[in-house]
Design brief:
heterodimer, A: 309 residues, alpha/beta, seven-stranded parallel sheet, five-stranded parallel sheet, 8 helices, B: 253 residues, Rossmann fold, nine-stranded mixed sheet, two-stranded antiparallel ribbon, 32% strand, binds flavin-adenine dinucleotide, binds adenosine monophosphate
Chain lengths: 309, 253
Protein backbone atom coordinates (compact mmCIF):
# COMPACT_ATOMS: atom_id res chain seq x y z
CA UNK A 1 0.00 0.00 0.00
CA UNK A 2 1.09 3.55 -0.63
CA UNK A 3 -0.49 6.96 -0.36
CA UNK A 4 -0.39 9.95 -2.66
CA UNK A 5 -1.34 12.90 -0.50
CA UNK A 6 -2.22 16.14 -2.25
CA UNK A 7 -0.80 19.05 -0.26
CA UNK A 8 -2.94 22.11 0.34
CA UNK A 9 -1.16 25.00 -1.35
CA UNK A 10 -2.41 28.56 -1.05
CA UNK A 11 -0.83 31.15 -3.33
CA UNK A 12 2.29 29.07 -3.64
CA UNK A 13 2.71 28.48 0.11
CA UNK A 14 2.14 25.19 1.88
CA UNK A 15 -0.86 25.15 4.22
CA UNK A 16 1.13 23.10 6.69
CA UNK A 17 -1.50 22.59 9.36
CA UNK A 18 -4.13 21.13 7.01
CA UNK A 19 -1.59 19.05 5.10
CA UNK A 20 0.08 17.69 8.26
CA UNK A 21 -3.31 16.72 9.73
CA UNK A 22 -4.08 14.71 6.60
CA UNK A 23 -0.64 13.07 6.91
CA UNK A 24 -1.37 11.90 10.44
CA UNK A 25 -4.71 10.49 9.29
CA UNK A 26 -3.09 8.12 6.81
CA UNK A 27 0.22 7.15 8.44
CA UNK A 28 -0.98 3.55 8.88
CA UNK A 29 -1.72 3.16 5.19
CA UNK A 30 1.86 2.87 3.96
CA UNK A 31 4.51 5.19 2.60
CA UNK A 32 3.21 8.73 2.12
CA UNK A 33 4.25 10.65 -0.98
CA UNK A 34 3.11 14.25 -0.99
CA UNK A 35 2.24 15.99 -4.25
CA UNK A 36 2.87 19.73 -4.13
CA UNK A 37 1.25 21.38 -7.13
CA UNK A 38 1.18 25.05 -7.99
CA UNK A 39 3.26 27.81 -9.54
CA UNK A 40 6.53 28.70 -7.80
CA UNK A 41 6.20 26.03 -5.15
CA UNK A 42 9.82 25.09 -4.36
CA UNK A 43 9.58 26.45 -0.83
CA UNK A 44 6.24 24.72 -0.31
CA UNK A 45 7.80 21.43 -1.44
CA UNK A 46 10.70 21.88 0.96
CA UNK A 47 8.23 22.55 3.78
CA UNK A 48 6.18 19.46 2.91
CA UNK A 49 9.34 17.33 2.87
CA UNK A 50 9.87 18.16 6.54
CA UNK A 51 6.56 16.76 7.76
CA UNK A 52 7.25 13.60 9.78
CA UNK A 53 5.98 10.49 7.99
CA UNK A 54 6.41 11.90 4.49
CA UNK A 55 8.71 9.62 2.49
CA UNK A 56 8.86 11.55 -0.76
CA UNK A 57 7.66 14.81 -2.26
CA UNK A 58 6.63 15.27 -5.89
CA UNK A 59 6.65 18.82 -7.20
CA UNK A 60 4.50 19.90 -10.11
CA UNK A 61 5.31 23.49 -10.95
CA UNK A 62 3.33 25.10 -13.72
CA UNK A 63 1.32 28.30 -14.26
CA UNK A 64 -1.79 26.20 -15.05
CA UNK A 65 -1.71 24.93 -11.46
CA UNK A 66 -1.36 28.35 -9.80
CA UNK A 67 -4.98 28.59 -8.63
CA UNK A 68 -5.84 24.98 -7.93
CA UNK A 69 -8.38 24.76 -10.77
CA UNK A 70 -10.06 21.37 -10.75
CA UNK A 71 -9.52 20.36 -14.37
CA UNK A 72 -5.70 20.63 -14.59
CA UNK A 73 -5.32 19.43 -10.96
CA UNK A 74 -7.37 16.28 -11.50
CA UNK A 75 -5.58 15.57 -14.80
CA UNK A 76 -2.21 15.97 -13.08
CA UNK A 77 -3.06 13.59 -10.26
CA UNK A 78 -4.37 11.02 -12.72
CA UNK A 79 -1.14 11.32 -14.70
CA UNK A 80 1.07 10.67 -11.68
CA UNK A 81 -1.30 8.00 -10.32
CA UNK A 82 1.04 5.04 -10.84
CA UNK A 83 0.66 2.35 -8.20
CA UNK A 84 -0.66 4.40 -5.32
CA UNK A 85 -3.50 2.68 -3.50
CA UNK A 86 -4.83 5.76 -1.73
CA UNK A 87 -5.31 9.33 -2.94
CA UNK A 88 -5.82 11.61 -0.01
CA UNK A 89 -6.17 15.33 0.67
CA UNK A 90 -7.20 17.50 3.60
CA UNK A 91 -10.91 18.32 3.22
CA UNK A 92 -10.49 21.90 2.10
CA UNK A 93 -12.65 23.68 -0.47
CA UNK A 94 -9.90 23.09 -3.05
CA UNK A 95 -9.70 19.36 -2.40
CA UNK A 96 -13.47 18.98 -2.34
CA UNK A 97 -13.46 20.55 -5.77
CA UNK A 98 -10.74 18.31 -7.20
CA UNK A 99 -10.92 14.86 -5.60
CA UNK A 100 -14.46 13.84 -6.62
CA UNK A 101 -13.56 14.75 -10.21
CA UNK A 102 -10.41 12.64 -9.94
CA UNK A 103 -12.39 9.75 -8.44
CA UNK A 104 -14.86 9.78 -11.34
CA UNK A 105 -11.97 9.82 -13.82
CA UNK A 106 -10.58 6.72 -12.06
CA UNK A 107 -14.07 5.17 -11.92
CA UNK A 108 -14.07 4.94 -8.13
CA UNK A 109 -16.19 6.51 -5.39
CA UNK A 110 -14.83 9.36 -3.35
CA UNK A 111 -15.04 9.12 0.44
CA UNK A 112 -15.56 12.62 1.81
CA UNK A 113 -14.70 13.97 5.26
CA UNK A 114 -13.01 10.93 6.76
CA UNK A 115 -12.98 11.22 10.57
CA UNK A 116 -11.15 7.96 11.23
CA UNK A 117 -9.23 5.44 9.17
CA UNK A 118 -10.36 2.08 10.60
CA UNK A 119 -8.62 -0.15 8.05
CA UNK A 120 -7.11 0.28 4.60
CA UNK A 121 -10.57 0.05 3.08
CA UNK A 122 -12.79 1.14 5.99
CA UNK A 123 -13.47 4.67 7.15
CA UNK A 124 -15.76 6.63 9.46
CA UNK A 125 -17.42 9.77 8.16
CA UNK A 126 -20.21 12.10 9.30
CA UNK A 127 -23.61 12.23 7.59
CA UNK A 128 -26.72 14.32 8.27
CA UNK A 129 -24.74 17.33 9.47
CA UNK A 130 -22.76 15.16 11.85
CA UNK A 131 -25.86 13.77 13.55
CA UNK A 132 -24.75 10.30 12.57
CA UNK A 133 -21.43 8.70 11.81
CA UNK A 134 -21.29 6.01 9.16
CA UNK A 135 -18.68 3.30 8.79
CA UNK A 136 -18.07 2.58 5.11
CA UNK A 137 -16.01 -0.09 3.42
CA UNK A 138 -14.84 0.55 -0.10
CA UNK A 139 -14.55 -2.22 -2.67
CA UNK A 140 -12.74 0.04 -5.14
CA UNK A 141 -9.24 -0.88 -6.25
CA UNK A 142 -7.95 2.53 -5.21
CA UNK A 143 -9.44 4.77 -2.55
CA UNK A 144 -9.90 8.51 -2.95
CA UNK A 145 -10.52 10.35 0.31
CA UNK A 146 -10.73 13.76 1.84
CA UNK A 147 -9.85 14.06 5.50
CA UNK A 148 -11.83 16.06 8.05
CA UNK A 149 -8.88 17.95 9.46
CA UNK A 150 -10.63 18.81 12.74
CA UNK A 151 -10.46 15.12 13.66
CA UNK A 152 -6.66 14.86 13.56
CA UNK A 153 -3.58 16.43 15.13
CA UNK A 154 -0.95 17.70 12.71
CA UNK A 155 2.06 15.44 12.18
CA UNK A 156 5.26 16.80 13.73
CA UNK A 157 8.40 17.92 11.91
CA UNK A 158 10.78 15.21 10.77
CA UNK A 159 13.83 14.61 8.59
CA UNK A 160 13.63 16.10 5.11
CA UNK A 161 12.32 13.62 2.54
CA UNK A 162 13.66 13.57 -1.03
CA UNK A 163 12.01 15.85 -3.57
CA UNK A 164 11.36 14.91 -7.20
CA UNK A 165 9.96 16.99 -10.03
CA UNK A 166 7.12 15.63 -12.14
CA UNK A 167 6.16 16.89 -15.56
CA UNK A 168 2.85 18.64 -16.06
CA UNK A 169 0.61 17.89 -19.02
CA UNK A 170 -1.11 20.49 -21.17
CA UNK A 171 -3.83 22.54 -19.47
CA UNK A 172 -7.19 21.09 -20.54
CA UNK A 173 -8.23 24.73 -20.99
CA UNK A 174 -11.76 24.19 -19.73
CA UNK A 175 -11.70 26.95 -17.16
CA UNK A 176 -9.64 30.02 -16.36
CA UNK A 177 -8.91 31.92 -13.19
CA UNK A 178 -10.07 35.53 -13.05
CA UNK A 179 -9.51 36.76 -9.49
CA UNK A 180 -9.34 35.90 -5.82
CA UNK A 181 -10.92 38.10 -3.19
CA UNK A 182 -9.18 36.99 -0.06
CA UNK A 183 -9.85 38.35 3.38
CA UNK A 184 -6.46 39.50 4.67
CA UNK A 185 -5.99 39.12 8.38
CA UNK A 186 -3.28 38.78 11.00
CA UNK A 187 -5.52 36.55 13.08
CA UNK A 188 -4.88 32.83 13.34
CA UNK A 189 -6.49 30.62 10.70
CA UNK A 190 -9.97 29.49 11.67
CA UNK A 191 -9.26 25.79 11.22
CA UNK A 192 -6.02 25.77 13.22
CA UNK A 193 -6.70 28.39 15.92
CA UNK A 194 -6.64 27.35 19.59
CA UNK A 195 -9.51 29.70 20.33
CA UNK A 196 -12.40 30.66 18.04
CA UNK A 197 -14.86 33.45 18.81
CA UNK A 198 -17.97 33.28 16.62
CA UNK A 199 -20.87 35.66 16.19
CA UNK A 200 -24.37 34.99 14.92
CA UNK A 201 -27.44 36.86 13.84
CA UNK A 202 -27.78 38.23 17.35
CA UNK A 203 -24.78 40.47 16.72
CA UNK A 204 -27.08 42.50 14.49
CA UNK A 205 -24.81 44.26 11.99
CA UNK A 206 -21.44 44.33 10.31
CA UNK A 207 -20.42 47.27 12.54
CA UNK A 208 -21.34 45.36 15.68
CA UNK A 209 -19.18 42.46 14.53
CA UNK A 210 -16.26 44.63 15.68
CA UNK A 211 -17.26 43.55 19.20
CA UNK A 212 -16.68 39.92 18.23
CA UNK A 213 -13.40 40.78 16.54
CA UNK A 214 -12.21 42.78 19.55
CA UNK A 215 -12.80 39.85 21.91
CA UNK A 216 -11.08 37.54 19.43
CA UNK A 217 -8.05 39.83 19.30
CA UNK A 218 -7.91 40.11 23.08
CA UNK A 219 -7.79 36.30 23.26
CA UNK A 220 -5.52 35.78 20.24
CA UNK A 221 -8.39 33.94 18.60
CA UNK A 222 -9.78 33.43 15.11
CA UNK A 223 -13.20 34.83 14.23
CA UNK A 224 -16.05 32.65 13.05
CA UNK A 225 -19.69 33.23 12.16
CA UNK A 226 -22.97 31.46 11.70
CA UNK A 227 -24.58 31.17 8.31
CA UNK A 228 -27.21 33.72 9.31
CA UNK A 229 -24.46 36.24 10.13
CA UNK A 230 -22.80 35.63 6.76
CA UNK A 231 -26.06 35.70 4.80
CA UNK A 232 -26.96 38.99 6.50
CA UNK A 233 -23.66 40.49 5.39
CA UNK A 234 -22.24 40.86 8.92
CA UNK A 235 -19.25 38.63 8.17
CA UNK A 236 -17.41 37.27 5.11
CA UNK A 237 -18.28 33.81 3.77
CA UNK A 238 -14.95 32.29 4.76
CA UNK A 239 -15.82 32.78 8.44
CA UNK A 240 -18.81 30.45 8.28
CA UNK A 241 -18.61 27.50 10.65
CA UNK A 242 -20.90 24.53 10.12
CA UNK A 243 -22.15 21.71 7.96
CA UNK A 244 -21.27 23.56 4.80
CA UNK A 245 -18.74 25.97 6.21
CA UNK A 246 -15.58 25.17 8.12
CA UNK A 247 -15.31 22.45 10.71
CA UNK A 248 -13.29 23.53 13.73
CA UNK A 249 -12.25 21.81 16.94
CA UNK A 250 -10.32 24.39 18.98
CA UNK A 251 -9.49 24.23 22.68
CA UNK A 252 -12.11 26.92 23.24
CA UNK A 253 -15.09 27.91 21.09
CA UNK A 254 -17.13 30.93 22.12
CA UNK A 255 -20.55 31.21 20.43
CA UNK A 256 -22.10 34.64 20.76
CA UNK A 257 -25.63 35.41 19.63
CA UNK A 258 -25.82 32.01 17.92
CA UNK A 259 -28.88 29.83 18.54
CA UNK A 260 -27.19 26.48 17.94
CA UNK A 261 -28.90 25.03 14.86
CA UNK A 262 -27.68 21.52 14.02
CA UNK A 263 -26.02 22.85 10.87
CA UNK A 264 -23.92 25.17 13.03
CA UNK A 265 -23.19 22.51 15.66
CA UNK A 266 -21.89 20.26 12.87
CA UNK A 267 -18.94 22.61 12.53
CA UNK A 268 -17.95 23.11 16.17
CA UNK A 269 -19.29 20.50 18.54
CA UNK A 270 -15.96 18.65 18.71
CA UNK A 271 -14.37 21.70 20.34
CA UNK A 272 -12.79 20.91 23.70
CA UNK A 273 -14.56 23.63 25.66
CA UNK A 274 -17.64 25.45 24.41
CA UNK A 275 -18.91 28.75 25.80
CA UNK A 276 -22.26 30.20 24.78
CA UNK A 277 -23.41 33.76 25.36
CA UNK A 278 -27.04 34.20 24.44
CA UNK A 279 -29.90 36.21 25.88
CA UNK A 280 -32.37 33.35 25.36
CA UNK A 281 -31.88 30.78 28.10
CA UNK A 282 -33.75 28.22 25.98
CA UNK A 283 -31.34 28.51 23.04
CA UNK A 284 -30.21 25.01 21.96
CA UNK A 285 -26.57 26.13 21.96
CA UNK A 286 -26.70 25.78 25.77
CA UNK A 287 -27.26 22.02 25.34
CA UNK A 288 -23.71 21.63 24.07
CA UNK A 289 -22.03 24.44 26.02
CA UNK A 290 -19.74 23.67 28.94
CA UNK A 291 -20.26 27.20 30.22
CA UNK A 292 -23.39 29.12 29.36
CA UNK A 293 -23.96 32.78 30.11
CA UNK A 294 -27.49 34.07 29.68
CA UNK A 295 -26.86 37.72 28.94
CA UNK A 296 -27.19 40.49 26.41
CA UNK A 297 -24.09 40.22 24.27
CA UNK A 298 -23.79 44.01 23.99
CA UNK A 299 -23.27 44.10 27.73
CA UNK A 300 -21.27 40.89 28.23
CA UNK A 301 -18.87 40.92 25.30
CA UNK A 302 -17.23 44.32 25.96
CA UNK A 303 -16.74 43.36 29.61
CA UNK A 304 -15.22 40.04 28.58
CA UNK A 305 -12.90 41.88 26.18
CA UNK A 306 -11.83 44.40 28.85
CA UNK A 307 -11.06 41.66 31.32
CA UNK A 308 -9.14 39.61 28.74
CA UNK A 309 -6.98 42.40 27.32
CA UNK B 1 -29.85 27.42 -24.02
CA UNK B 2 -30.93 24.41 -22.04
CA UNK B 3 -30.23 23.68 -18.39
CA UNK B 4 -30.42 20.39 -16.54
CA UNK B 5 -30.98 20.55 -12.79
CA UNK B 6 -30.57 17.39 -10.69
CA UNK B 7 -32.70 17.52 -7.55
CA UNK B 8 -32.56 15.09 -4.66
CA UNK B 9 -35.29 14.16 -2.21
CA UNK B 10 -33.84 14.21 1.30
CA UNK B 11 -35.01 14.37 4.91
CA UNK B 12 -36.10 17.95 5.55
CA UNK B 13 -33.31 20.02 7.08
CA UNK B 14 -35.47 20.77 10.12
CA UNK B 15 -35.98 17.12 11.01
CA UNK B 16 -34.12 15.77 13.98
CA UNK B 17 -33.03 12.42 12.61
CA UNK B 18 -33.14 9.14 14.52
CA UNK B 19 -31.16 5.98 13.93
CA UNK B 20 -32.66 2.56 13.35
CA UNK B 21 -32.39 0.37 16.42
CA UNK B 22 -30.13 -2.12 14.60
CA UNK B 23 -27.65 0.65 13.72
CA UNK B 24 -27.93 -0.09 10.00
CA UNK B 25 -29.02 3.38 8.92
CA UNK B 26 -30.90 6.52 9.73
CA UNK B 27 -34.61 5.84 10.20
CA UNK B 28 -36.54 7.55 7.40
CA UNK B 29 -39.93 5.97 8.09
CA UNK B 30 -42.54 8.75 8.43
CA UNK B 31 -39.91 11.47 8.16
CA UNK B 32 -40.79 14.71 6.38
CA UNK B 33 -38.94 14.76 3.08
CA UNK B 34 -38.12 17.84 1.00
CA UNK B 35 -36.01 18.97 -1.88
CA UNK B 36 -32.34 19.21 -0.89
CA UNK B 37 -31.91 22.92 0.04
CA UNK B 38 -28.96 23.40 -2.31
CA UNK B 39 -31.06 22.01 -5.16
CA UNK B 40 -33.78 24.57 -4.50
CA UNK B 41 -31.07 27.17 -4.99
CA UNK B 42 -30.00 25.45 -8.23
CA UNK B 43 -33.57 25.41 -9.55
CA UNK B 44 -34.04 29.04 -8.57
CA UNK B 45 -30.89 30.04 -10.45
CA UNK B 46 -32.05 28.23 -13.57
CA UNK B 47 -35.47 29.90 -13.34
CA UNK B 48 -33.87 33.34 -12.96
CA UNK B 49 -31.75 32.68 -16.05
CA UNK B 50 -34.93 31.75 -17.90
CA UNK B 51 -36.67 34.90 -16.70
CA UNK B 52 -33.71 36.91 -18.01
CA UNK B 53 -34.10 35.25 -21.39
CA UNK B 54 -30.73 33.46 -21.22
CA UNK B 55 -32.25 30.02 -20.79
CA UNK B 56 -35.01 28.55 -22.91
CA UNK B 57 -35.64 25.23 -21.22
CA UNK B 58 -35.12 23.79 -17.73
CA UNK B 59 -35.19 20.04 -17.20
CA UNK B 60 -35.27 18.77 -13.61
CA UNK B 61 -34.04 15.24 -12.90
CA UNK B 62 -34.32 13.12 -9.80
CA UNK B 63 -33.02 9.64 -9.17
CA UNK B 64 -34.49 7.63 -6.33
CA UNK B 65 -37.77 6.25 -5.07
CA UNK B 66 -41.08 6.90 -6.90
CA UNK B 67 -41.95 9.55 -4.28
CA UNK B 68 -39.17 11.71 -5.72
CA UNK B 69 -41.92 12.67 -8.12
CA UNK B 70 -43.08 15.14 -5.45
CA UNK B 71 -39.66 16.75 -5.44
CA UNK B 72 -39.82 17.08 -9.21
CA UNK B 73 -43.31 18.62 -8.99
CA UNK B 74 -41.83 21.22 -6.64
CA UNK B 75 -39.14 21.99 -9.21
CA UNK B 76 -41.82 22.29 -11.88
CA UNK B 77 -43.86 24.59 -9.66
CA UNK B 78 -40.79 26.78 -9.15
CA UNK B 79 -40.46 27.13 -12.92
CA UNK B 80 -38.78 24.07 -14.46
CA UNK B 81 -40.36 23.11 -17.78
CA UNK B 82 -40.17 19.36 -17.64
CA UNK B 83 -38.98 16.60 -15.36
CA UNK B 84 -37.41 13.19 -15.57
CA UNK B 85 -37.80 10.70 -12.74
CA UNK B 86 -35.35 7.83 -12.74
CA UNK B 87 -36.60 5.24 -10.28
CA UNK B 88 -33.89 3.25 -8.56
CA UNK B 89 -35.98 1.17 -6.18
CA UNK B 90 -38.70 1.46 -3.59
CA UNK B 91 -36.75 1.36 -0.33
CA UNK B 92 -36.33 4.90 0.97
CA UNK B 93 -33.26 3.77 2.88
CA UNK B 94 -31.39 2.89 -0.28
CA UNK B 95 -29.35 5.87 -1.38
CA UNK B 96 -27.52 5.78 -4.68
CA UNK B 97 -23.90 6.90 -4.46
CA UNK B 98 -22.74 10.05 -6.21
CA UNK B 99 -20.75 7.96 -8.73
CA UNK B 100 -23.90 6.07 -9.78
CA UNK B 101 -25.96 9.26 -9.84
CA UNK B 102 -23.28 10.96 -11.92
CA UNK B 103 -23.26 8.07 -14.40
CA UNK B 104 -27.01 8.30 -14.89
CA UNK B 105 -26.81 12.07 -15.22
CA UNK B 106 -24.00 11.69 -17.77
CA UNK B 107 -26.24 9.37 -19.81
CA UNK B 108 -29.08 11.88 -19.62
CA UNK B 109 -26.70 14.64 -20.69
CA UNK B 110 -25.89 12.56 -23.79
CA UNK B 111 -29.55 12.41 -24.75
CA UNK B 112 -30.71 15.83 -23.52
CA UNK B 113 -27.66 17.82 -24.61
CA UNK B 114 -27.94 20.66 -22.09
CA UNK B 115 -25.49 23.59 -22.23
CA UNK B 116 -25.30 23.76 -18.47
CA UNK B 117 -25.95 21.51 -15.49
CA UNK B 118 -26.66 23.32 -12.22
CA UNK B 119 -26.55 20.89 -9.30
CA UNK B 120 -26.53 21.49 -5.57
CA UNK B 121 -23.17 21.67 -3.84
CA UNK B 122 -24.01 18.92 -1.40
CA UNK B 123 -26.87 16.63 -0.44
CA UNK B 124 -27.62 17.26 3.22
CA UNK B 125 -28.23 13.58 3.94
CA UNK B 126 -24.99 11.92 2.82
CA UNK B 127 -23.01 15.18 2.90
CA UNK B 128 -20.78 13.89 0.08
CA UNK B 129 -20.33 17.06 -1.96
CA UNK B 130 -19.31 15.02 -4.98
CA UNK B 131 -21.93 14.47 -7.68
CA UNK B 132 -21.40 17.66 -9.71
CA UNK B 133 -17.64 17.25 -9.77
CA UNK B 134 -17.98 13.56 -10.70
CA UNK B 135 -20.38 14.38 -13.51
CA UNK B 136 -17.98 16.98 -14.90
CA UNK B 137 -15.14 14.46 -14.66
CA UNK B 138 -17.12 11.76 -16.49
CA UNK B 139 -18.14 14.17 -19.26
CA UNK B 140 -14.74 15.85 -19.52
CA UNK B 141 -16.50 19.18 -18.94
CA UNK B 142 -15.31 22.16 -16.99
CA UNK B 143 -16.72 22.71 -13.52
CA UNK B 144 -17.38 25.64 -11.22
CA UNK B 145 -18.36 24.45 -7.77
CA UNK B 146 -19.71 26.27 -4.68
CA UNK B 147 -21.09 29.12 -6.76
CA UNK B 148 -22.27 32.32 -5.09
CA UNK B 149 -22.67 34.20 -8.37
CA UNK B 150 -23.24 33.04 -11.93
CA UNK B 151 -23.16 35.10 -15.13
CA UNK B 152 -23.62 33.53 -18.53
CA UNK B 153 -21.53 35.12 -21.28
CA UNK B 154 -20.51 34.21 -24.78
CA UNK B 155 -19.93 30.43 -24.68
CA UNK B 156 -18.83 30.63 -21.08
CA UNK B 157 -20.01 31.06 -17.53
CA UNK B 158 -18.31 33.42 -15.12
CA UNK B 159 -18.71 32.05 -11.64
CA UNK B 160 -17.78 33.39 -8.22
CA UNK B 161 -16.98 30.51 -5.89
CA UNK B 162 -16.94 30.34 -2.10
CA UNK B 163 -13.52 29.00 -1.15
CA UNK B 164 -11.63 28.70 2.13
CA UNK B 165 -9.85 32.02 1.87
CA UNK B 166 -12.81 34.04 0.60
CA UNK B 167 -14.09 34.25 -2.96
CA UNK B 168 -12.62 33.08 -6.25
CA UNK B 169 -13.91 34.04 -9.67
CA UNK B 170 -13.34 31.72 -12.62
CA UNK B 171 -14.65 31.44 -16.14
CA UNK B 172 -15.64 28.05 -17.45
CA UNK B 173 -16.37 27.06 -21.03
CA UNK B 174 -19.85 25.83 -21.80
CA UNK B 175 -21.09 23.17 -21.59
CA UNK B 176 -20.16 22.97 -17.93
CA UNK B 177 -21.29 21.86 -14.51
CA UNK B 178 -21.96 24.47 -11.82
CA UNK B 179 -22.80 23.59 -8.22
CA UNK B 180 -24.83 26.00 -6.11
CA UNK B 181 -23.73 27.26 -2.70
CA UNK B 182 -25.96 28.86 -0.08
CA UNK B 183 -25.54 32.47 -1.15
CA UNK B 184 -26.21 32.08 -4.88
CA UNK B 185 -29.79 33.25 -4.36
CA UNK B 186 -32.82 32.91 -2.13
CA UNK B 187 -35.18 30.37 -3.62
CA UNK B 188 -38.80 31.36 -4.11
CA UNK B 189 -41.79 29.55 -2.71
CA UNK B 190 -43.98 28.02 -5.37
CA UNK B 191 -47.31 29.85 -5.56
CA UNK B 192 -50.57 27.91 -5.47
CA UNK B 193 -51.40 28.64 -9.14
CA UNK B 194 -47.92 27.47 -10.10
CA UNK B 195 -48.33 24.31 -8.03
CA UNK B 196 -51.55 23.63 -9.94
CA UNK B 197 -49.88 24.35 -13.28
CA UNK B 198 -46.97 22.08 -12.39
CA UNK B 199 -49.34 19.12 -12.25
CA UNK B 200 -49.83 19.44 -16.00
CA UNK B 201 -46.18 19.81 -16.92
CA UNK B 202 -44.54 16.73 -18.46
CA UNK B 203 -42.88 14.25 -16.10
CA UNK B 204 -41.17 11.38 -17.85
CA UNK B 205 -40.50 8.19 -15.93
CA UNK B 206 -37.51 5.98 -16.48
CA UNK B 207 -35.88 3.23 -14.50
CA UNK B 208 -32.20 2.81 -13.72
CA UNK B 209 -32.30 -0.48 -15.63
CA UNK B 210 -33.07 1.47 -18.83
CA UNK B 211 -29.54 2.80 -18.83
CA UNK B 212 -27.61 -0.49 -19.02
CA UNK B 213 -24.98 0.87 -16.65
CA UNK B 214 -23.07 -0.94 -13.95
CA UNK B 215 -24.32 0.93 -10.90
CA UNK B 216 -23.27 -1.51 -8.20
CA UNK B 217 -22.32 0.46 -5.10
CA UNK B 218 -18.65 0.83 -4.30
CA UNK B 219 -19.13 1.67 -0.66
CA UNK B 220 -20.96 -0.53 1.79
CA UNK B 221 -22.20 0.96 5.01
CA UNK B 222 -21.61 -1.47 7.87
CA UNK B 223 -22.75 0.76 10.68
CA UNK B 224 -24.45 4.06 11.40
CA UNK B 225 -23.90 5.35 14.92
CA UNK B 226 -24.59 8.37 17.07
CA UNK B 227 -21.69 10.79 17.22
CA UNK B 228 -19.83 11.15 20.50
CA UNK B 229 -22.33 12.94 22.72
CA UNK B 230 -21.84 16.16 24.62
CA UNK B 231 -23.28 16.92 27.99
CA UNK B 232 -24.69 20.33 28.70
CA UNK B 233 -22.43 22.00 31.24
CA UNK B 234 -23.24 24.70 33.74
CA UNK B 235 -24.67 28.18 33.57
CA UNK B 236 -22.50 30.93 34.97
CA UNK B 237 -24.01 34.03 36.51
CA UNK B 238 -21.64 36.69 35.25
CA UNK B 239 -18.80 37.50 32.89
CA UNK B 240 -16.45 37.48 35.91
CA UNK B 241 -17.47 33.95 36.84
CA UNK B 242 -17.11 32.84 33.22
CA UNK B 243 -13.55 34.15 33.00
CA UNK B 244 -12.69 32.61 36.36
CA UNK B 245 -13.97 29.17 35.21
CA UNK B 246 -12.14 29.41 31.89
CA UNK B 247 -8.91 30.25 33.70
CA UNK B 248 -8.94 27.89 36.62
CA UNK B 249 -11.35 25.06 35.84
CA UNK B 250 -10.96 24.67 32.07
CA UNK B 251 -7.50 26.21 31.78
CA UNK B 252 -8.11 27.44 28.25
CA UNK B 253 -7.38 31.15 28.59
C1 LIG C 1 -28.55 23.45 3.80
C2 LIG C 1 -28.24 24.29 5.00
C3 LIG C 1 -26.92 24.44 5.38
C4 LIG C 1 -26.61 25.24 6.48
N1 LIG C 1 -25.31 25.36 6.83
C5 LIG C 1 -25.00 26.12 7.90
C6 LIG C 1 -23.63 26.27 8.33
O1 LIG C 1 -22.71 25.73 7.72
N2 LIG C 1 -23.38 27.04 9.42
C7 LIG C 1 -24.39 27.69 10.13
O2 LIG C 1 -24.09 28.39 11.10
N3 LIG C 1 -25.66 27.55 9.74
C8 LIG C 1 -25.99 26.80 8.65
N4 LIG C 1 -27.29 26.72 8.27
C9 LIG C 1 -28.29 27.61 8.91
C10 LIG C 1 -28.84 27.12 10.23
O3 LIG C 1 -29.92 26.25 10.01
C11 LIG C 1 -29.33 28.33 11.07
O4 LIG C 1 -30.29 29.04 10.33
C12 LIG C 1 -28.22 29.30 11.45
O5 LIG C 1 -27.13 28.60 12.01
C13 LIG C 1 -28.75 30.32 12.44
O6 LIG C 1 -27.76 31.28 12.73
P1 LIG C 1 -27.81 32.08 14.10
O7 LIG C 1 -27.74 31.13 15.23
O8 LIG C 1 -26.76 33.14 14.02
O9 LIG C 1 -29.20 32.84 14.00
P2 LIG C 1 -30.55 32.64 14.88
O10 LIG C 1 -30.99 31.23 14.83
O11 LIG C 1 -31.44 33.69 14.40
O12 LIG C 1 -30.07 32.92 16.33
C14 LIG C 1 -29.69 34.17 16.81
C15 LIG C 1 -29.48 34.04 18.31
O13 LIG C 1 -28.99 35.25 18.83
C16 LIG C 1 -29.57 35.46 20.11
N5 LIG C 1 -29.52 36.89 20.38
C17 LIG C 1 -30.18 37.88 19.71
N6 LIG C 1 -29.85 39.08 20.22
C18 LIG C 1 -28.99 38.85 21.24
C19 LIG C 1 -28.31 39.69 22.16
N7 LIG C 1 -28.45 41.02 22.13
N8 LIG C 1 -27.51 39.12 23.08
C20 LIG C 1 -27.35 37.77 23.13
N9 LIG C 1 -27.97 36.93 22.28
C21 LIG C 1 -28.77 37.47 21.35
C22 LIG C 1 -30.97 34.91 20.00
O14 LIG C 1 -31.47 34.55 21.27
C23 LIG C 1 -30.74 33.69 19.09
O15 LIG C 1 -30.50 32.51 19.85
C24 LIG C 1 -27.63 25.90 7.19
C25 LIG C 1 -28.96 25.73 6.81
C26 LIG C 1 -29.26 24.93 5.73
C27 LIG C 1 -30.69 24.76 5.33
N1 LIG D 1 -30.34 10.92 -6.30
C1 LIG D 1 -30.15 12.13 -6.85
N2 LIG D 1 -31.03 12.63 -7.76
C2 LIG D 1 -30.86 13.83 -8.32
N3 LIG D 1 -29.82 14.63 -8.03
C3 LIG D 1 -28.91 14.20 -7.15
C4 LIG D 1 -29.02 12.93 -6.51
N4 LIG D 1 -27.97 12.78 -5.68
C5 LIG D 1 -27.23 13.92 -5.79
N5 LIG D 1 -27.79 14.77 -6.67
C6 LIG D 1 -27.31 16.11 -7.07
O1 LIG D 1 -25.94 16.24 -6.68
C7 LIG D 1 -25.79 17.25 -5.69
C8 LIG D 1 -24.69 16.88 -4.71
O2 LIG D 1 -25.01 15.70 -4.02
P1 LIG D 1 -23.91 14.85 -3.21
O3 LIG D 1 -22.75 14.67 -4.12
O4 LIG D 1 -24.60 13.55 -2.90
O5 LIG D 1 -23.58 15.63 -1.98
C9 LIG D 1 -27.17 17.42 -5.11
O6 LIG D 1 -27.31 18.70 -4.55
C10 LIG D 1 -28.05 17.20 -6.33
O7 LIG D 1 -28.07 18.35 -7.17
Amino acid sequence: MSVLLIAEVTEGALARDATAKAVSAVLDLGAVTVLVAGAGVDAAAADAAKIAGVTKVLVADDPSLAHGLAEPMAALIRDVAGDYTHFVAPGTADAKNVLPRLAAMLDVMVISDVMAVLAADTFARPVYAGNAVQTVTSSDAVKVLTVRTASFQPAADGDAAPIETVSVGADPGLSAWIEDRVTESDRPTLTSAKIVVSGGRGVGSEENFALIAALADALGAAVGASRAAVDSGFAPNDWQVGQTGKVVAPELYIAIGISGAIQHLAGMKDSKVIVAINKDEEAPIFDVADYGLVADLFDAVPRFTDAAS
Amino acid sequence: MKVLVPVKRVADYNVKIRLKADGSSVDLANVKMSMNPFDEIAVEEAVRLKEKGTVSEIVAVSIGVPQAQETLRTALAMGADRAILVTAGTDVHQDMEPLGVAKILAALVESERPDLVIAGKQAIDNDMNATGQMLAGLLGWGQATFASNLEIGDGQAVVTREVDGGLQTVSVKLPAVVTADLRLNEPRYASLPNIMKAKKKPLEEKSVSDFGLDLSPRLSVSKVAEPAGRQAGIKVASVEELIEKLKTEAGVI
